[in-house]
Amino acid sequence: MLDLSAETADVRGELDAAWARVLDSGQFVLGPEVEAFEAEAAAYLGVPHAVGLNSGTDALLLALRALDVGPGDEVITTPFSFFATSETILTVGATPVFVDLAPGTFLLDPEAAAAAVTPRTRALLPVHLYGELAPTTALRRLADARGLFVVEDAAQAIGARYAAPCRACPDPERCAADAPVGRAAGALGDAAAFSFYPTKNLGALGDGGLLTTGDAHVAARVRRLRNHGSERRYHHEELGVNSRLDALQAAVLRAKLPRLEGWTAARRAVASRYDAALAGIDGLTPPTATPGHVYHQYTVRIAGGRRDAVAEALRRSGIATMIYYPHTLERYGGRVVDDLPHAHAAAAEALSLPVFPTLGSDAQDRVVDALRRALA
Ligand SMILES: Cc1ncc(COP(=O)(O)O)c(C=O)c1O
């Protein structure tokens, strides 16, 4: 599904130098390496503040905590995501309110979100799933009209940039007028969470995460929360957690960040090769190519209840695929406002194919041939 060795080889010299620099520095948690990474990531993403954390999960958790989302509050989110998205809402004591996906997409439906707002709603939590931007303009407008926060789950979407009104947009003309063209995932909400889990488009050599925000108070609060609620040693203003980014991970991420745009371009080239090869295959719908997508996953839909059989046939031909995600999250608690037909269809039909920057065209042809055979 993913060959990280070629990526590592590509950047091996810089990684060795980064490793040596950290060893020689004798400083292994936070410190100058983390500060430098935070500054470089903030500049790359075009955000005023970036705070290095232990994981994407912690970035979501501390975003909600820093915005004072807690018991009694509702957070409108997608039911079709990794568990951490709703887990963190539940962890802070708030209620995830699951609304459906926009038809034909894997992204939160802004109209369904608008219909689900109650006096208890505090935040919208869209996910830029698979590396495709959620309909942020419409969600931002809804949040501004109703006095809500927007927290982006950008765990899978580093480098995705808003390019045109989103596919799931209910009002493309209006969105075109105020579209934040060129703005990156992570720069569109009140706070955003990134993951540097090793398989992500920008991966550490272990766990790592980043919170971005335009709000200096939120950034300062997250810096405090990541360090046991403390700004000065042994003075604890509030209960926090230990979620400090390691210097080694920061150094690795600094070495890789300058390569990210090139790797993203290579992912897009792989995706457009798939688009061309998979067009017109009966029973298979390729993802709609939206500008700005960074293809953390290349996910097709296989309808008619055949997805699992196709995945099994591919496995027997030596082709790895993944099902992100086999079911929706409403089973874990929270409130469901309707019967989520589009989310359930996505959970039954989504199949992610191998996509990574160094995936060769021969290997891709084998995936496509095996898919054709499985569907024939
Ligand atoms: C959509 C989404 N949100 C949150 C996370 C959590 O990130 P982490 O694994 O770094 O805690 C992930 C990671 O897989 C993710 O894919």
Key descriptive features of the protein:
binds pyridoxal-5'-phosphate, three-stranded antiparallel sheet, eight-stranded mixed sheet, alpha/beta, Aspartate Aminotransferase, domain 1, Aspartate Aminotransferase, domain 2, 14% strand, 376 residues, 14 helices
Can you describe what's shown?
This protein has 376 residues and is α/β, with parallel strands linked by helices. The protein has two domains: 4-99 and 106-257, 3-Layer(aba) Sandwich (Aspartate Aminotransferase, domain 2), CATH 3.40.640.10; 260-375, Aspartate Aminotransferase, domain 1 (Alpha-Beta Complex), CATH 3.90.1150. Helices cover 40% and strands 14% of the residues. The chain contains 14 helices and 13 strands. The chain has helices spanning 4-10, 12-25, 32-45, 56-66, 84-91, 110-115, 136-146, 172-178, 216-225, 247-256, 260-278, 307-316, 341-349, 361-375; strands spanning 49-53, 74-77, 95-98, 121-125, 149-153, 191-195, 209-213, 230-232, 235-236, 284-285, 298-302, 335-336, 350-353. The chain has an eight-stranded mixed β-sheet with strand order 1-7-6-5-4-2-3-12, with helices on both faces. The protein has a three-stranded antiparallel β-sheet with strand order 10-11-13. A two-stranded antiparallel ribbon has the order 8-9. Strand 8 (230-232) and strand 9 form a beta hairpin. Helix 11 packs parallel to helix 14 (361-375). It starts with a helix and ends with a helix. It binds pyridoxal-5'-phosphate (PLP). Pyridoxal-5'-phosphate is lined by residues 55-57, 81-82, 84-85, 127, 153, 155-156, 195, 197, 207, 209.
